[in-house]
C-alpha cells in the first residue's frame, strides 16, 4: 500500500511540474507547455482566450492533503 501511495503522489507531482497550459476559449482549447511573452494570452493566431494550468498548485495541494488525511491514524482515533 505504501508503494502504491508513493507512486500516486509522484504521478501527481510530475503532472504538476509538466505544467501543461490549456486555452479557456471553447473554440480553441489548445494545450501547450510554452508560455508566451504576452503573459496568459493564447499563442494561437486569432484566438482571444487565456491559457491556464491544466493542473494547478491548488489542485496538487488538495490532492496531497487528501492523501495525508486519508492515512492520518491519530486524527481518525480522535473522531
From TrEMBL:
One protein family per Pfam: zf-DNA_Pol
Segments forming a coiled coil: none
UniProt xrefs under InterPro entries: Pol_alpha_znc_sf, Znf_DNA-dir_DNA_pol_B_alpha
Listed Gene3D superfamilies: DNA Polymerase alpha, zinc finger (1.10.3200.20)
A GO CC term attached to the entry: alpha DNA polymerase:primase complex
Domain Zinc finger DNA-directed DNA polymerase family B alpha: 2-79
One biological process term in Gene Ontology: mitotic DNA replication initiation
Any one Gene Ontology molecular-function term assigned to this protein's record: chromatin binding
Protein name: DNA polymerase alpha zinc finger-domain-containing protein
Amino acid at each position: 500500500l505504501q508503494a502504491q501511495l508513493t507512486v500516486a503522489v509522484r504521478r501527481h507531482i510530475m503532472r504538476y511540474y509538466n505544467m501543461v497550459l490549456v486555452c479557456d476559449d471553447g473554440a480553441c482549447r489548445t494545450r501547450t507547455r510554452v508560455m508566451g511573452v504576452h503573459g496568459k494570452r493564447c499563442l494561437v493566431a486569432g484566438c482571444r482566450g487565456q491559457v491556464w494550468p491544466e493542473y494547478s498548485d491548488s489542485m496538487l495541494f488538495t490532492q496531497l492533503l487528501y492523501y495525508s488525511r486519508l492515512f492520518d491514524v491519530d486524527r481518525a482515533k480522535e473522531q
